[in-house]
């Protein structure tokens, strides 16, 4: 049996009711839906051309007075228009599915990103917890203290007598004390002759004063005697 497109109508094949175990990726499904929509659009375009052809045929038959033929053409026109309406409904259904699937896929991608971010944050928190941070800080302080001790050890001078320095200082102080005691207990040394002149035994002669000074001195002695 032939359909309206002139092709042999194939018998419907039975589809197994066994569910498939494979799942279709959302993007692949969206592509399939968009492809199906384009196919329906092409089919709709073909049907509308059929409608126009039936209208032209009906007019031609009416012009020839063939009302029966014109009526039959109009019936085919109605049938094609009904088919076009069905195609419109199919397109709307496919478009709705595609939009909903795109939205669901976007939501799934957003959810997956949020879940991945949450899991990453959990992993970071587990790897870098407050207790681990405290442990790291304690270890860092210990390492710094050990490094300081190593630096101090390296900076020490290499001298075999440094260990006996306190003993040597004590011995030096003992020597100084012994020298001081010996100096204090030693007899006094005789005074050396420095060549200085000897002190005269008699009274030194008085220098002669000038006449005026002698007179004033006498007056002063007289005043003192009268008191």
Automatic annotation (TrEMBL):
The keyword Aminoacyl-tRNA synthetase does not apply. It comes from the Eukaryota. The keyword ATP-binding does not apply. Residues 12-27 have a biased composition (Low complexity). This is Body protein 4B. It comes from Seminavis robusta. One of its GO terms (cellular component) is cytoplasmic side of plasma membrane. GO terms for biological process: late endosome to vacuole transport via multivesicular body sorting pathway; vesicle budding from membrane. Pfam families: Snf7. It is found in: Endosome. Residues 1-27, 186-212 are annotated as: Disordered. PANTHER family: CHARGED MULTIVESICULAR BODY PROTEIN, GH13992P. Belongs to the SNF7 family. Keywords: Coiled coil, Endosome. Residues 41-97, 130-178 form a coiled coil.
